[in-house]
Amino acid sequence: MKIIDIITAEKPSLSFEVFPPKTSDSFDSIKKATEEIASLTPSYMSVTYGAGGGTSQHTVSIAENLQKNFSVPALAHLSCVSSTKDQISKQLDLLRSKGIDNILALRGDIPEGMSRDHLDYHYASELTEEIRQYGGFCIGGACYPESHPESPSSFQDIKYLKAKVEAGAEFLVTQMFFDNDVLYNFMYRIREAGIHVPVVAGIMPVVNPKSIKRICAMSGSALPQRFCRIVDKYGDNPKAMKQAGIAYATEQIIDLYANGINAVHIYSMNRPDVAAAIQSNISEIIK
Ligand code: FAD
Question: What is the pLDDT, as a whole number, of residue 193?
Fold first, then answer.
């Protein structure tokens, strides 16, 4: 099933992102976590892609398992900056052969010290165009309500986002954000710029405060005062932090649905307990 049909339906969608194992040793435990999340029967699940291709097989096998054995539509991430055209072509063949219909087309982060001179791909729009030409896939792209960290201005970032949509991205998934007004402002600016594809809001329930400052520094997401107070107060108490982090995310999600953002994607960090708690908190809202 194509993601575009799920997120444009009248019913609000709730989906989860999972990540594949970095080594084969942890494959079974991560597969189990993704299966527990799939048992919640979300609208769809996305599976991230490790840059460089080392875990690319795992992305496909986890995605295939979710579709085949749990009937959960899968969105396979695919990043291009560390790949050759030949590797991407083989990955597309593999996804096609496994019945994966949906791809989130990404550039990926450029590894430190890597020369950009001889890359086959420089931007996600080039990959998007290539997948479109391959045919048959529903293609999504990433977007950044607070601008991509490398971008000199939000104006430039939106200009290139438009090019990515024109290259074939049928929907966009946002980077995490902790203040919904940031997203509403972004929606206004992209619509003004002529980008009219559906936008899926990416929400990260923060249950482990240790990693959040690092993640935000990398992603460019700002932490509002209200949120920092919660982390300051409960950050050293894991059970309280989990409860507060889930409550904060739940409040964000309800506000998003109430304001017409009909598709929400949870960065689950492979935590079935967190995914289940969020889903249960909004069970009547997404019915
Ligand atoms: P692009 O759309 O190419 O944008 C990257 C930068 O280049 C931006 O600053 C943009 O403004 C600029 N730009 C674009 N086109 C041009 C142009 N023609 N000329 C000049 N500048 C241009 N990474 C992974 O490795 N694996 C994953 O599974 C993964 N999943 C993600 C899921 C989501 C929802 C998000 C938001 C990010 C994800 N990432 C993932 C991270 C992503 O790969 C990085 O943020 C990366 O730095 C940018 O990827 P992109 O696809 O947004 O790039």
Answer: 98
Nearest CA to ligand 1 atom 23: 108
Provide the Cα torsion 139, 140, 141, 142; round to 10°: -160
- The answer to whether 45 touches 37, Cβ cutoff 8 Å, is yes
Residue 127 alpha carbon to ligand 1 centre in Å: 11
Task: Say how far apart CA 223 and CA 242 lie, in whole Å.
Answer: 17
Count of alpha carbons within 13 angstroms of residue 213, beta-carbon side:
6
Tell me, yes or no, if the pTM score tops 0.85: yes
Radius of gyration of the chain (CA): 18
- Protein residues with CB under 6 Å of any ligand 1 atom: 48-49, 51, 77, 79, 106-109, 123-125, 142, 148, 150-151, 156-157, 160, 164, 173, 175, 202
In ligand 1, the atom with minimum distance to the C-alpha of 176 is 36
Angle at CA of residue 272, ends 269 and 144, nearest 5°:
35
Atom index in ligand 1 nearest the CA of residue 142 equals: 36
Q: Which residue is it, tokens 């307990």? A: 273
**CA 244, CA 216: separation in Å to the nearest integer?**
18
Query: What is the distance, to the nearest Å, from the Cα of residue 85 to the centroid of all Cα atoms in its chain?
Result: 24
Apex 56 CA angle, 171 and 6, nearest 5: 25
Task: Please give the average pLDDT of every successive group of 10 residues along the chain, which has 287 residues.
Answer: 98 97 89 98 96 77 97 97 94 97 94 82 97 98 96 97 98 97 98 98 93 78 90 93 97 98 97 98 96
- Measured CA distances, 114 to 82, 110, 117, 287 (Å): 9, 7, 9, 47
